[in-house]
Amino acid sequence: MDFRTEYNTNESKWKGYFDLTLKPERDKYYILGVVSDPKGSVQTTYTTIDGVTTTEEEIKSEVEFSAQFAKRFEDFVLRIGLMENTFGFGADYFFYRDRGRLKFDIWDLSAKEAEAEKAHARVGLDYSLFKYVFISSGVDNLLNSSRRGVYVGGGLSFEDRDFKYLIGKLPGVSLP
Q1: Can you tell me whether residue 166 is helix, strand or coil?
Q2: Are 50 and 36 in contact (CB under 8 A)?
Q3: Which CATH number is 2-44+53-168's, of 2.40.128, 3.40.50, 1.10.3470, 2.60.40?
Q4: pLDDT for 101-146, tens place per residue?
Q5: I need a labelling partner for 146 at 20 to 30 A (CA). Which of 29, 71, 81, 110 fits?
Q6: pLDDT at 79
Q7: What are the sequence ranges of the domains in the chain?
Q8: d(Cα 104, Cα 78) in Å, to the nearest integer?
Q9: Residue 46 phi/psi, 5° resolution?
Q10: Which long-range contacts (CB under 8 A, 24 or more apart) does 145-148 make?
Q11: Nearest Cα to Cα of residue 29 among 75, 88, 78
């Protein structure tokens, strides 16, 4: 389970993530996520007065969802599925005993995002400082120069055995 936030220098906005990773096997897993995106959608309004049509676009914050399938090959992972409400795929390279991760993602292939002319692509690096704390940085929206920016952030990561320990200490609760 991961909670993270990222600040995008170009957009001057924070974006929040919650991901739940289900690993039935070490080399195969599923990632379910919720994203709070400050530039999630564009609402377009067309107004016609005396034969003249004007267009007004309003950018709205949106809650978006992700659901990905991931397959691991040694230190390399391929992912595919729903990313922030659209189809996408990605790849990860893990290093230093999985404390570091180099990642690449591309989604919104039909460029439906606000102020986007091309798909949304990002490259980044995550690094675990401590057991539960990680930092994240990279370049977001590589293909759209008007929205391209550096992001920095961090988060908390927990595993099921962490919750088993915490919940098991509550009075009247026991877990196998």
Answers
A1: helix
A2: no
A3: 2.40.128
A4: 999 999 999 887 777 789 999 999 999 999 899 999 999 999 998 8
A5: 81
A6: 98
A7: 2-44+53-168
A8: 10
A9: -105, 130
A10: 146/115, 146/117, 147/10, 147/11, 147/39, 147/113, 147/115, 147/116, 148/10
A11: 78
Averaged confidence pLDDT in the chain: 88
Interval 61-100: pLDDT, tens: 688 999 999 999 999 999 999 999 999 999 999 999 999 9
Q: What phi, psi does 158 have (nearest 5°)?
A: -130, 155
What are the structure tokens assigned to 117, written together? 């002319």
Rounded to two decimals, what is the model's pTM? 0.80
10 Å Cβ neighbour count for 68?
21
Which two tokens mark 112?
Answer: 């439906």
On the CB side of 48, CA atoms within 13 Å amount to 1
3-state secondary structure at position 168: helix
The tokens describing 105, both together, are 């993602």
Collapsing DSSP to helix, strand or coil, 6 comes out as strand
Whole-angstrom Cα distance, residue 176 to residue 168? 9
Structure-block tokens of residue 96 = 């230093």
